[in-house]
Every structure is written in C-alpha cells, then in structure tokens.
Amino acid sequence: MIRSFEGHTPQIDPSAWVDDSALVLGDVVLGADSSVWPVCVLRGDVNRIRIGECSNIQDGSVLHVTHDGPYTPGGQDLAVGNEVTVGHNVTLHACHIHDRVLIGMGSVVMDGAIIASDVILAAGSLVSPGKVLDSGYLWRGRPAQRVRPLTQEERDHLRYSAEHYVRLKLRHEGQGRPPEGMEV
C-alpha cells in the first residue's frame, strides 16, 4: 500500500518493487532497483526516509523517523544507501546506513546511529543511539561491538546479496531480466 500523508507522496523509482502487503507512507523515496518485501512498514510521516539504489528491505522490517521536538530539534530522518540488505524483522529508527551493508535478521538500529559502508551487522544486534559503526568490520551483540575485519569473501557477499535481491524482485515482477551488466 502506497499512501500520501500531509501532502507528501512516496516517490518510487519505476524499476523499484514494493510488495502489495507492505506500507510505504509519506515522505519516502525508493531508489532504482530497490525492493520492499511483505509486511514491511516505511513510515515517513514526521520526517523523511531515503532508500538508495539496489537496496532491499526484507519481510517484517519497520523503518521510522523522529519528529521535531524538545529532545530532537528538527527531528531525525532515515537514510539507507546503495546495495544495502536489511534482513527480516529489522527495526531502523532515524539512523543512517551507508553503502554495501548487511543488517542481520532481528537487529535494531536506533536514533542517530551511523553504519559506515562495507559493514556486516550480525543477526539480533542492537546499535545504540548515536553509535557509529566503522567501515570494514563485522559487528555483533547487544549493544553491537566490533568483532573483526571483514574477509574479502564477506565484502564480495555484500554486493552479491544486493544483486540477488534485484534478481528476485524481477522474478516477482515477472520481468525476468536483470539490469544491464548484472549476471543472471
């Protein structure tokens, strides 16, 4: 379901895909070849949400923002970069996720947190408000702690995961062909 709110209508790139059971509401921009899977909620009602290209928001995930108020002047938006995989049942709240990040199932990323590019956040992790996760590492735990540098295989998997979800969304759309230059 795509819904406007107070004059803001979601802007969804024609190549992006949103499952019929998902809710995308308000000031939300979804980039090229991105996908939003069943029962997700992207609620850009009190601030904006921006999703980059070739990113996927998997089943049951909730993305929200904070409003302008005494504790958050101007509020906080939510931004997800390019080639990001957001696993099942993830909560992203008013945070910034850079490019080529994998957020494991059931993780929570809180207000003002920043996840740099090329990061894996293990399933079930909690990123505390305002925490910054440095690039190039595996992070895990509640609260998330840096575990070790990513291997080259893990770095390659970040891009593979994003490409896999582009191919999968094409199958769901019935188009069957990946974007130019992407292997089948």
Number of helical regions = 1
Query: Into which percentage range does the β-strand content fall?
Result: 35-45%
The poorly predicted ranges are: none
The level 1 CATH classification is Mainly Beta
**Percent range for helical residues?**
10-25%
CATH architecture title: 3 Solenoid
CATH fold node name = UDP N-Acetylglucosamine Acyltransferase, domain 1
Number of beta-strand segments: 20
- How would you classify the quaternary structure? single chain
What's the Cα radius of gyration? Answer: 16 Å
Shape: globular
Domain unit count = 1
- Secondary structure class reads mainly beta
What is the mean predicted local confidence, pLDDT? 94
- Cα distance spanning the termini: 30 Å
Major sheet, described briefly? 12 strands, parallel
Keywords: Transferase
GO molecular function: transferase activity
Organism: Ectothiorhodospira marina
Protein name: Carbonic anhydrase or acetyltransferase, isoleucine patch superfamily
Short description:
The radius of gyration is 16 Å and the shape is globular. The protein has a single domain (2-173), classed as Hexapeptide repeat proteins (UDP N-Acetylglucosamine Acyltransferase, domain 1, 3 Solenoid). It has 1 helix and 20 strands.
Task: List key phrases describing it.
184 residues; mainly beta; UDP N-Acetylglucosamine Acyltransferase, domain 1; 12-stranded parallel β-sheet; 8-stranded mixed β-sheet; 1 helix; 12% helix; globular; LbH_gamma_CA-like; transferase; Hexapep
